[in-house]
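Late entry, written up from scratch paper. The run itself happened at the end of the previous shift, but nothing got recorded in the book at the time, so transcribing now.
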Amino acid sequence: MSDNDNIRIQDEEIEALSAIYGDDWVIVDSDSKKYGIKVADENSANMIFMEVSFPPDYPKTSPPQYILSAPWLRREERISLEDALADIYCANIGESVIFLWVEKIREFLQEKSEMKVETKPDVASPEKVEEKSEGEEDWSEDSFAKIQEELIKRSHSTEQEETKEEVTCPDIHHGESFMDRKSVFQGHIAAISHTKQVKLVLDSLCQSKKIAMATHNIYAYRIIQNDQSDVYYQGCEDDGETQAGSRMLHLMQIVDARNVIVVVTRWYGGVHLGPDRFKHINNCARQLLDDHGYIKSKNEKKGPKSSKKKR
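Output as recorded:
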C-alpha cells in the first residue's frame, strides 16, 4: 500500500465518520488531520471525548493516535478501555479502525450505564442526587463546547510554541544485544516529552549504518500532555514486522509507561523464529523500561497469581 493509498483511505474514513456522527464529529485541525468526537451512551448519562489524529502511515503500519478526555473515568477503567482499543487495532492491522473504536467506547459507556441502573436504589438519598447533578454539570453541552474550543486552541498554540522553542534530541540508551537462531535483537530507549522527538530519536539511531541497515526498527512511544494523567500522545511502527509495534505499545499501556520511546532493532539471520520473535521484541522493551524506571512495580500483575507446587 503506497502513501497515496493511505491518504485516500484516510480521506474516505474522515468523510464517512463525518456523515455518520454529524455534529458529534469536530474538526480540530484539518491540516494536520486532527479531529474529535463526542461518544455517549443512549441516555447521554456518560460521555467521553476522543481526539484522534492520522499519522501518514495509517492504516498501513501505524494506528491512529488518540486522546481520551473523561474526568470521571477511573484509572482502572481507562486502562481496561485502552487495552480493548489496542486489541481492536491488533485484530485489524492495515484497516480503518476509528469507527470500531468509537463503537467500542459507546458499548463501554452503555454497559457502565446499565450497571448503574441495576444497582440504583428505589429512593435516592440527597447525597446520591447531588453526586448525579455534579456529573451532569461536568458534561453539559457548554462544557463539551469548551473542550472542543480548548482542543482547537491547543492544536494551534502547540504549533506556535514549536517555532519559539527548539525541540532537541534526548539521550538514547542502548540495551544489550542477544542472538537467537542467527537473528540479533537490541533495544534502545529515550525519555521524550514532544512528538517531534520521536523522529529525532529515530534519525539519531539511523546515523549508525548498522542500525540503519537493520531488517526492522520497531518502535512505540507514549507521551503525557501537560502533566495530566488522562491525556496521552502515543503511536507505534512495525517497520515490516507485522503487529510488533502495536504489541510493544500495548505493553507500554499495561505498565503505564510515560514520556518514553522504545526502539527494538532486529537483524534477521535467515531462520524464521515464528512467535518467538514477538516474545524477544517485547522482552527487549520490557527490560529497558524496567532498567530505566518506567515500570512502577515489577511485582504488579493483572489477575490472580498461579500457585505451583514444588516437586
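The CA atoms of residues 238 and 245 lie 4 Å apart.
(Scratch paper discarded after transcription.)
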